[in-house]
Write a structure and sequence with these properties.
Layout: H1 2-10, E1 11-15, H2 21-33, E2 37-41, E3 47-49, H3 52-63, H4 81-90, H5 98-105, E4 107-109, E5 122-124, H6 130-133, E6 138-140, H7 141-147
Parallel strand pairs: 1-2, 1-5, 2-4
Antiparallel strand pairs: 3-6
């Protein structure tokens, strides 16, 4: 228990609410590569900029891609927001190198706010706030994934 409390003190907890997913992911990838532990909460409230209809159609087309010979070999498409955001951040890391894989192990992503992080100091990325930054349409990750088959939020 003491070791977990120490890790929580060393971790950076970031709230993804209304944050632009690509910009947030790039910043998180940079923090991970510098050796920090990062915990992302409210993954379903991250934002993808663009026309919602075009974004939904794009992801439907991507989800049609799979291996015909052995589907267990991928590519894998996640319908849970935490795994979706985590996979997006993984794309910004040098995954084929050892330091990229070690950085990815230092990342945790959650839907909502788990009880153990509710009283911790949470960083809100105001410079990536879509409501102030974007002048055009956007869609929340949770709404996109509901169109693609996500059943809803899981309780802690």
């Amino acid at each position: 228990m003491l070791n977990e409390a120490k890790r929580l003190d060393e971790s950076i907890i970031i709230d993804a609410s209304n944050a632009i997913l690509g910009r947030l992911g790039a910043r998180i990838a940079k923090l991970l590569l510098s050796g920090k532990r990062v915990i992302v909460i409210n993954a379903e409230k991250a934002v993808i900029s663009g026309d919602p209809e075009v974004i939904i159609q794009k992801y439907k087309d991507i989800w049609e891609i799979h291996s015909r010979t052995n589907p267990r070999k991928g590519p894998f498409h996640y319908s849970r927001p935490d795994l979706f955001v985590k996979r997006t951040i993984r794309g910004m890391l040098p995954w084929k190198k050892k330091r990229g894989r070690e950085a990815y192990k230092r990342l945790k992503v959650f839907v909502g706010i788990p009880p153990q992080y509710s009283k911790a100091k949470i960083i809100k990325m105001k410079e990536f706030d879509a409501t102030k930054r974007l002048k055009h349409k956007w869609i929340y990750v949770g709404d996109l994934l509901k169109y693609l088959g996500w059943k809803g939020i899981t309780e802690y």
